[in-house]
Amino acid sequence: MNAPLFEVCLRIGDDALIAAQRLGEWSAAAPDLEEDIALSNIALDQLGVARLMLSYAGEVEGAGRDEDALAYLRDDRDFRNCLLVELPNAGPAAGPHAPIDFGVTMARMLFGSTYQLLLYQWLLDSSDQRLRDIAAKARKESAYHVDHATQWTIRLGDGTEESHRRMQAAVDDLWPYTHELFLGTAPAGVAPDPSTLRPAWLEAVSDVLTVATLTRPEDGWAPSGGREGRHTEHLSYLLAEMQVLHRAHPGAMW
Fold it and tell me: Which residue range forms the structural domain that includes residue 173?
């Protein structure tokens, strides 16, 4: 098994899978019908990337696990997604049943999708043909995700006093979790050194926050551990919901 490549596939695939699951929570709960459809489509885009990456991860591993096994039969310690994508839509400090917050979702989409877009753009020149092919598809979708989050961040940040307050609170709460996106290593030529993506990410996100009349938070406390399988309690709740049907009826087909 090519262990470094396996890790790359898991990190990208798990980020997309968990992001899709969180976005799916907005189904029939978005502010209006158009946004309900938009968020569902973005979730499907993320799920599509997750399927491609986890399928490839299974092939690289060579242990007979397919995309379903990797999605539904791993425990939280085996997931390699960043902490940012697993946080509740209600915010990092919220309990599992707290009301979802649209501002939190848009801030996370802005931060996460901007990172994904830069990652996929880099992977277009990867030495790995399969990663290049996946990135070519994912890059176009991520560009739309960034645009969608950008428009909402500006609309809410530069909107009413209440929308500005809530959008700033979402940015402040999620900012510490963005630092983990740029930690770790990657096999040379196959995937980028995560730290090299931060300058372009910081410039792009800062430009949006400025237009949205939002203040970019100061860097400080920066939780991490997701890439090594050390997650918040929120991932356990998410996986319990996502995996229950598959685990209750293993091998079922319909």
Answer: 3-248
pTM exceeds 0.85 for this model: yes
Residue 239 CA to its chain's centroid (Å): 15
Helix (H) or strand (E) holding 209: helix 198-211
37 lies in some domain: yes
Whether 165 is in a domain gets the answer: yes
What is the number of alpha carbons within 13 Å of residue 216 lying toward its C-beta? 14
Name the strand (E) or helix (H) holding 57.
helix 33-61
Asked if the model's pLDDT at residue 125 lies above 80, the reply is: yes
Enumerate the H helices of 77-195 as residue ranges: 83-86, 102-123, 129-157, 161-178
Contacts of 250 (CB under 8 A, 6+ apart): none
- Angle of helix 102-123 relative to helix 129-157, nearest 10 degrees, comes to 150
Number of domains within the chain: 1
Q: What angle do CA 91, 102, 215 make, to 5 degrees?
A: 75
Model pLDDT for residues 134-159, shown as the tens digit of each residue: 999 999 999 999 999 999 999 999 99
Spatial distance between the Cα atoms of 188 and 165, rounded to a whole number of angstroms: 43
